[in-house]
Amino acid sequence: MKFAQTVLPTSLALIFAGQALAAVSPQDAAKLGSSLTLVGAEKAGNADGSIPAYNGGLTTPPASYKSGDSMRPDPFASEKPLVSIDGKNVDQYKSLLTATTVELAKRFPTFRVDVYPTHRTVSLPQAILDNGVKNASGAKSLENGLAIDNVLPGVPFPIPQTGNEAMWNFLLRYQGVSISSKYDSWNVDSAGVPSLAITGQAFISYPIYENLTQPISSADVYYQMKLAYTGPARRAGEAVMLKDAANPLQQPRRAWQYLPGQRRVKLAPSLAYDTPNPGTAGAGTYDDVFVFNGALDRYDWKLVGKQEMIVPYNTYKLTYAQDPKLLTTANHLAPDFVRWEKHRVWVVEGTLKAGARHIYAKRRFYLDEDSWTALASDQYDARGQLYRGSFAFLSQSYDKQVPDSTPFMIYDLVGGSYNINGVVGPYGGIKYTDPLSKAQWSSESLAGAGIR
């Protein structure tokens, strides 16, 4: 099978990292719904047909799906790979792969990328799509692109002009209103030994999507997460809560932590940026969660352009795997569980600002054109060496019109270890629930959430 790399033309002459630009022209906005989908993706397929045209996504569950179930069968389970990429042929495809993927293929003979037919499965509620069209001419970025205002719930910048705008599209991507799932986080060390880092109950809420007609102001919280750890025994009873606002310069991340030994809830402002994340036993940082998480202010962001890439996609087999021991093989995830497809992604590069502190000097993100999910990233250290690489595992919750990327992982290419987080298969899969009450999102509620 032959793949041809295509870098698609954009209005890149207007792009300057970090600069906040005015709304797009009426001529560009008119492309939404014609040559572009309502979230700004290319409607047409690619030249060689390996990426199909967008036809509305996957909205019909397979016959094997049981209505109301949170375990979603793979609608493509019978498909076979079109090609397999490993260390022997990786150079042939390296222009279509992230730097981390290429490094894993060259380093480990057992690593393999099985490339399947591409399915553009992402489907979103019509009201959210309509809001994205309105945002194209009405959304505002503030603080030189580090904050947003007057954005309707939906894609804020469907035709992005800067790296900041593309990253805001990712941060505000639609993932439902409220998710409550029990999950595991597993580490595999350089000797290939898996160990449980965390078992927890996660409550994740996007309050901006509770009212689709209410514009998001710069003071609004767009993302909040509460975690209650139930295992292993040494971590049981701990709890964490985070809240992010649309203007993180005026209202930085608010975070609280409950530790059973101290028997009190305390403010935890350090739970951000490159602070090691205990939920991964230190294998990743707090802003590695879901490939990226939190404020944009420590980096200058450049929109490189749109590119065809082979990335994890429609990963139902991995997301709903019920035995994590089958996933966590030595050196890398078990290749049999990872489905890869060819898709168009926006490439965004973050370079650490002069005087700013972070363990990553440069980060490159690959954002899915259909969902704005960050599917992968490459992280580099101060010497310019590839340090870590992340992947998110996207599958469409076809019964809810929600693209989900709860499972995510990070490879430490220096230490030789990796972590996979959001392993929900053993606990019933992805569950969409009613939002928690305001009282349940108060800091006082955290002590109750963390009781052993």
Mean model confidence by pLDDT? 94
> What is the CATH class designation?
Mainly Beta
- Give me the Rg, rounded: 21 Å
Oligomeric state of the chains in view: single chain
Strand content: 25-35%
Ends apart, CA distance between termini: 54 Å
**Shape verdict:** globular
CATH T-level topology: outer membrane lipoprotein receptor (LolB), chain A
| H/I helix tally | 8
Secondary-structure element series: EHEHHEHEEHEEEEEEEHHEEEEEEEEH
Strand order of the largest sheet: 1-12-13-14-15-16-19-20-6-7-8-9-10-11
CATH architecture: Clam
Unreliable stretches: 1-21
Question: What count of structural domains?
Answer: 1
Please, what is the CATH homologous superfamily? Lipoprotein localisation LolA/LolB/LppX
Q: In percent, how helical is the residue content?
A: 10-25%
> For the report, how would you describe the main beta sheet?
14 strands, antiparallel
Question: Quick recap of the structure?
Answer:
By secondary structure, this protein is mainly beta. Helices cover 12% and strands 29% of the residues.
Question: Please, could you describe this protein's structure?
Answer:
- The chain is 12% helix and 29% strand.
- A hairpin with a 7-residue loop joins strand 8 and strand 9 (239-245).
- The protein has a single domain, classed as outer membrane lipoprotein receptor (LolB), chain A (Clam), CATH 2.50.20.10.
- The chain has helices at residues 26-29, 90-93, 99-107, 126-138, 163-171, 316-319, 324-327, 445-449; strands at 7-8, 83-85, 113-115, 140-142, 147-149, 178-188, 194-205, 221-231, 239-245, 254-259, 264-267, 299-312, 340-352, 362-368, 374-380, 386-392, 395-397, 402-404, 408-412, 417-423.
- By secondary structure, it is mainly beta.
- Residues 1-21 have low confidence and may be disordered.
